[in-house]
Amino acid sequence: GPDSVRAMTDCLFCKIVSGDVPAEIVRESDRALAFRDINPQAPTHVLVIPREHHPNVGELAAADPGLLAEVLREANQVAVDEGVAGEGFRVVFNTGPRAGQTVFHVHAHVIGGRDLNWPPG
Ligand code: 5GP
Ligand code: ZN
């Protein structure tokens, strides 16, 4: 429908899914994609997204909980692959402008490889 057409043309991460914008892809599954953040905040900083456009984690959870589960399984496997699963890592969904969400195609940040403070700043 018109929403998905708008997403495909305007959304940066839809363009990574389609290959129109290059990315350093680290994992691919049927319905999800993992690639390195262009501005990494830790030695491991990978973004995991559903191939399908959903604006944020709440909307994805409501529309397709199985797809959210796949994003989380892929996020965990990224941590395993990167060698940070044992020592500890973080999975973050920034949601909305005040939380710093800048790309409105849902993405899990997988962050690790250094000490992570709590609460975050
Ligand atoms: P947000 O701030 O929405 O939670 O996260 C968006 C993330 O996307 C940021 O960490 C930012 O560095 C990353 N990012 C923005 N543009 C690109 C890009 O073109 N390629 C990649 N790989 N990451 C990007
Ligand atoms: Zn998108």
From TrEMBL:
The active site is at 107 (tele-amp-histidine intermediate). A motif (Histidine triad motif) lies at residues 105-109. It is an enzyme of class 3 (hydrolase). The keyword Lyase does not apply. This is Purine nucleoside phosphoramidase. Keywords: Hydrolase. One of its GO terms (molecular function) is hydrolase activity. PANTHER family: HISTIDINE TRIAD HIT PROTEIN. Signal peptide: none annotated. Residues 12-121 form the HIT domain. Gene3D superfamilies: HIT-like. It comes from the Bacteria. Its EC number is 3.9.1.-. InterPro entries: Histidine_triad_HIT, HIT-like, HIT-like_sf. The keyword Hydrolase applies.
